[in-house]
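[Q] Does anyone have a clean structure-token version of this?
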Amino acid sequence: MIVYEQTSTLAQLEEILLLQQLNLPKNLTAKEKEHEGFLTVEHSLAFLKEMHDECPHIIAIDQRKVVGYALSMHPRFANSIEVLKPMFYEINKVVQNNCNYMVMGQICVSKEYRGKGVSRGLYKAMKEKLPKGFDTIITEVDAKNQRSLHAHEAVGFTELKRYSSEGKEWSLIILT
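[A] Here you go.
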């Protein structure tokens, strides 16, 4: 049985990084990227822990193993990851001042658990565990990553806008 909870140990953060490595473009074939999706950002353990210390990440656990995760990224990290700076810039152009959002910095589900509702469970838990004062989740998806776009739409995300940055098209989405 899959259990959803917030990260609480360094070992869980290390398991997130192992799952992340398996789903980075450099470790996938072109066919896998097209059909299974892919991740954009590679995190260090130190930065993952810094994000966790601000707001713990959400993980899906089965038989004491992390099989999926959704990274919580507080807006205070807006200038921490170069490839994400344009996302925060675009968010600030389209959200109203009274919108207190958390960024879902990355979501990933182990291949053998895909199609079983794990991403839906991760988002549900993330929304339930938002820190006091936060009311929604915003993220972006590479517009070429159709699997991810469809998965986000299925759990209730809607597009705020599309924009281009560094030769890529991004879909900025919000959980409604």
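[Q] Thanks! Anything notable?
[A] The CA atoms of residues 142 and 168 lie 7 Å apart.
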